[in-house]
Amino acid sequence: MERTFDFVILLDIYGELLSNGQREALDMRYNADLSLSEIAEEMGGVTRQSVLYSIKKGEQRLLELEEKLGFAERLNTLSAELDRAETLLSDIASEYSDKRFDEVRELLSAVKRGL
Asked: Which residues have C-beta within 8 Å of that of residue 13, sequence separation ≥ 6?
């Protein structure tokens, strides 16, 4: 996974456990792709240095939470396992004609969307 993508996922999972300033700065940085200057302006004219500090501390906290709790890693593992199950199901369904395969495929898709 790309580092930016990791922080987007980590922010979605653990964002509410950050301070408001850290959460806002990280959201603007990773979800809105704003520069430090733009974030500083959005946050009421704070300095770029304080924005950078909030981002770095927030990233550090997100990594600590993931290291302790591991929710993002479990999400990634479950997603990969669902992909593999869908592939196996498609392989089997190509050999046999049974409407139940379509039902199982729909269930797997629903579970994946729920992740």
From this structure: 66, 71, 72, 75
Residue in the structure block whose two tokens are 């969307």: 113
Q: What is the DSSP letter of 49?
A: H
- pLDDT tens over the chain, length 115 residues: 445 569 999 999 999 999 999 999 999 999 999 999 999 999 998 999 999 999 999 999 999 999 999 999 999 999 999 999 999 988 888 888 888 888 888 888 888 888 7
SS3 content of the chain, % helix, strand, coil (to 5): 85, 0, 15
Whole-model pTM: value is 0.78
Enter the tokens of residue 57: 């501390």
